[in-house]
Design the sequence.
C-alpha cells in the first residue's frame, strides 16, 4: 500500500481528492489533515509515501509545511495544491523541493499522473538507497564465525556515523575489506574512497602525497598537485599501515583531523576538507607510542572506534567457506568452472598454520586449482600446498 497524506483546510476538497485517489487504485491509502500543524504531526508519526498539500491554509501555510517536512523526511515527495492566484508560489515551492503542483480545481488525469510519477520516483530513491547499502562483490567479507559476525555487527553500527575507525590485525587478514565495508555502507558512498599505503611511500614524500604541494616547493615538484585528503573530499580516506607514517606527517594529519583543513607543501593557504578517516595497522601502536614512534594524541584521534580483525588461525571454521569463495572467484577470473575440494582436502587445509592468513589461503587455493585434479584431493594438498 502507498500511504498518501492530504493536507487541505477545505473539507469538500479533501473529500474529492480522497475519492479520486482511492477509486484510482486499491493500493492507495489516504490520510487527511485539516491544517498544516496536524499534517506535520502525521508526517512525524507515520511512514508516508506522498503528501498533497494546499498552499493557502490557516495556522501554517503550505510553504512552511514543505520546509518543516523536508527537514524531517527529505525524501518524502510533495505535490502542492494551488489556487489560480498561487501559481507563482507553487513554482517557488518546486525550487524549495516540491515534486510538482496541481491547480484547483484538479484535472483528473493531471492529478493521477502526478501521483504515479511522484510515487515512482520515491520507489526509485528507496531502491537506489538499498542498492548503495549492498557491498561490492570485490569486498565481500566471507565467514560466519563469531569473530567475523561481531565485526559485521560493529560495521553496521558505525558505518552510518562519521566516527573515525582504527582497524588492527596481522597482515593478510582483510583489514582493507573492513575499510571498504565501512565506506560502502556509509552515507559517504557516493563520494570517493581514497587509499594510501603509508608503508609504501618514502617518508620524504608522504606529506606531499597526503596534502599535495606547490610547484617548486622541492626538487621534482614541477606543477601544483592536490593531495589525497583533497581527493577524498566528501568521501573516505583510508590510511593503511598508518603505524609506518613519519612523525612529521603524523603532526600534519593530526592538524587535519582537528581543524578539517590541510596545507599543501610549500604553500601557506589552508584548504578545507570534509573527509572521514579510516586507518589500519598491523603494529601495536601502544608499544610504538611508548618507544616514541607514534603520537599518542593522533592515536586517540584515530581510535574512536577500534576494530580488531582476527588471524585466520583464530577463525578456522570459516576456511571451508573461504575455499569455496576463492574457487568460484578464481574460476571467474580464469573463465573456467569452479573446482570442488573433497572433505579430506578441506580438513587438511583447516589444520594448517596460516601465518600469511587469508592472503596465503587464496594463493594456496589458486595453486591447487591449477595443479590439482578435477576434484581437489587430500593428496593434491599434500603435494602442492606443502608449507
Sequence:
Amino acid at each position: 500500500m502507498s500511504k498518501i497524506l492530504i493536507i487541505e483546510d477545505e473539507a469538500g476538497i479533501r473529500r474529492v481528492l480522497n475519492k479520486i485517489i482511492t477509486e484510482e487504485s486499491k493500493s492507495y491509502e489516504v490520510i487527511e489533515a485539516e491544517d498544516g500543524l496536524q499534517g506535520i504531526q502525521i508526517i512525524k508519526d507515520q511512514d508516508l509515501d506522498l503528501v498533497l498539500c494546499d498552499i493557502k491554509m490557516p495556522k501554517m501555510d503550505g510553504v512552511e509545511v514543505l520546509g518543516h517536512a523536508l527537514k524531517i523526511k527529505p525524501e518524502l515527495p510533495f505535490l502542492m495544491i494551488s489556487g489560480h492566484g498561487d501559481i507563482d508560489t507553487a513554482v517557488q515551492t518546486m525550487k524549495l523541493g516540491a515534486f510538482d503542483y496541481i491547480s484547483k480545481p484538479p484535472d483528473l488525469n493531471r492529478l493521477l499522473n502526478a501521483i504515479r510519477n511522484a510515487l515512482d520516483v520515491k520507489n526509485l530513491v528507496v531502491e537506489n538507497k538499498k542498492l548503495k547499502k549492498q557491498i561490492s562483490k570485490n569486498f565481500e567479507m566471507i565467514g560466519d564465525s563469531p569473530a567475523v559476525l561481531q565485526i559485521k555487527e560493529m560495521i553496521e553500527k558505525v558505518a552510518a556515523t562519521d566516527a573515525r575507525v582504527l582497524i588492527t590485525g596481522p597482515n593478510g587478514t582483510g583489514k582493507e575489506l573492513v575499510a571498504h565495508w565501512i565506506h560502502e555502507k556509509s552515507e559517504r558512498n557516493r563520494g570517493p574512497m581514497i587509499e594510501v599505503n603509508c608503508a609504501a611511500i618514502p617518508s620524504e614524500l608522504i606529506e606531499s602525497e597526503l596534502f599535495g604541494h606547490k610547484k617548486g616547493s622541492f626538487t621534482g615538484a614541477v606543477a601544483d598537485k592536490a593531495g589525497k585528503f583533497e581527493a577524498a573530499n566528501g568521501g573516505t580516506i583510508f590510511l593503511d599501515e598508518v603505524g609506518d607514517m613519519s612523525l612529521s606527517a603524523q603532526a600534519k594529519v593530526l592538524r587535519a583531523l582537528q581543524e578539517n583543513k590541510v596545507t599543501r607543501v610549500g604553500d601557506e593557504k589552508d584548504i578545507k576538507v570534509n573527509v572521514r578517516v579510516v586507518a589500519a595497522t598491523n603494529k601495536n601502536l601502544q608499544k610504538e607510542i611508548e618507544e616514541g614512534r607514534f603520537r599518542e594524541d593522533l592515536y586517540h584521534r584515530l581510535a574512536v572506534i577500534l576494530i580488531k580483525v582476527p588471524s585466520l588461525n583464530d577463525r578456522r571454521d570459516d576456511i571451508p567457506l573461504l575455499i569455496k569463495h576463492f574457487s568460484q572467484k578464481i574460476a571467474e577470473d580464469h573463465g573456467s568452472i569452479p573446482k570442488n575440494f573433497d572433505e579430506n582436502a578441506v580438513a587438511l587445509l583447516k589444520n594448517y598454520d596460516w601465518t600469511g592468513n587469508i592472503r596465503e589461503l587464496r594463493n594456496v587455493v589458486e595453486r591447487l586449482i591449477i595443479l590439482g585434479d578435477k576434484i581437489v584431493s587430500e593428496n593434491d594438498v599434500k603435494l602442492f600446498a606443502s608449507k
